[in-house]
Design brief:
The chain contains 4 helices and 23 strands. It is α+β, with helices and mostly antiparallel strands. The protein starts with 11 loop residues before the first strand and ends with a strand.
Length: about 350
């Protein structure tokens, strides 16, 4: 049978403690909301524990919004769980107990918990698709302030969907960042393999401060440099060249040097024809057809007569030494040319 029954509108049972400064606790039913039971601290004028008509328990609140709702801080015993040194609260997936994480994460990683172990398919090519960003959280998320670093889960889903977490509605929610370390490790391994393959194929050796190879070349083949110091390039742009010997063109493909006039600022091609230096207006290799035809005719005339002067002789630098006589041989007959050092002129 019932020992104590209190009836009425919002009945209250008061418990007083004469040894604690007259503190009183009241057991109330329906005093806050119909169907709500709470333990009320009369001295502090505050509710200590509430149970609403949905069965939700509130500590520090009279409006519990979940099965257990707490307003204030929660402390856990230092003997919680069996882990040591962990900073996480973890859920035992068998007993569903709350435990202290052992280390920096909760996920079990021992082989005794795993099966179907395979090498991951992701690697360097996938890492190169990732889009690292900085960002701030929207104020309404209550995720804190300040700039954060990471990725966008929506973008990650199209690259590595296994690390993307979803909410209860199946919408993209977050990222399992610890799992990314395995993919980054795979990418580093692949990159190391590429470097080693390059070293082996080129017979290179490495030191802490250098990488020594036999040859380096561009992927399109527009330039290369080998261990003999031979540089092959389509075009070189530099401020200064210091060399012991300079060769321009070849026997099969004669060429010249383009120099710009100090006064007119126009380009001239300096080349050698029948042993004499001549200049032609324009950049070497880009002279107009008329100029080329004239030069060819001049060259032909030079070979047939062996006496005609170059189209535009280049004057040598005058010196104080006596005049010298130089002889240039052609395909038909020798030509004797005297360099007048006193005037800088060239006399055929």
């Amino acid at each position: 049978g019932t020992l104590v029954a209190i009836h009425g509108s919002a009945p209250i049972l008061t418990l007083g403690d004469s040894q604690s400064s007259g503190a009183q606790y009241r057991l109330r039913n329906g005093s806050i909301t119909a169907g709500t039971f709470d333990i009320y601290d009369n001295g502090a004028a505050a509710s200590r524990l509430s149970i609403n008509n949905a069965g939700n328990v509130g500590i520090g609140t009279t409006s519990p919004w979940r099965t257990e709702s707490v307003v204030g801080t929660i402390g856990w015993s230092s003997s919680l769980g069996t882990g040591t040194g962990g900073n996480y609260l973890c859920i035992d997936t068998t007993t569903f107990e709350v435990l202290r994480g052992n280390g920096a994460a909760c996920t079990a990683s021992s082989l005794r918990f795993k099966e179907n172990v395979q090498d991951i398919k992701y690697g360097l090519s996938d890492v190169l698709k990732l889009h690292p960003v900085s960002y701030t959280y929207k104020p309404e998320t209550n995720m804190g302030t300040g700039t954060k670093l990471g990725f966008i889960a929506d973008e990650m889903q199209s690259v590595i969907p296994e690390v993307v977490t979803l909410d209860k509605d199946g919408k993209v929610f977050g990222l399992d960042y610890p799992v990314l370390t395995s993919i980054l490790a795979k990418a580093i391994q692949e990159l190391d393999a590429k470097i080693n393959a390059l070293s082996l194929s080129s017979g290179s050796t490495t030191t802490p401060d250098s990488l020594m190879v036999k040859k380096i070349a561009s992927s399109l083949g527009n330039w290369s440099i080998d261990e003999d110091g031979t540089l092959m390039a389509v075009k070189i742009i530099t401020d200064e060249i210091v060399t012991q010997k300079l060769t321009v063109g070849s026997a099969s493909k004669p060429s010249g040097i383009t120099i710009y006039d100090e006064v007119t600022k126009e380009p001239y091609c300096i080349k050698v024809r029948n042993g004499a230096m001549v200049s032609e207006a324009g950049i070497c290799g880009n002279q107009n057809d008329k100029g080329q035809m004239t030069n060819q005719a001049q060259s032909s005339n030079d070979q047939s007569t062996a006496t005609a002067a170059p189209s535009t002789p280049v004057e040598p630098v005058a010196s104080s030494t006596p005049a010298a006589t130089e002889t240039a041989a052609t395909s038909t007959s020798p030509v004797s040319e005297t360099i007048a050092t006193s005037t800088g002129g060239l006399t055929p």
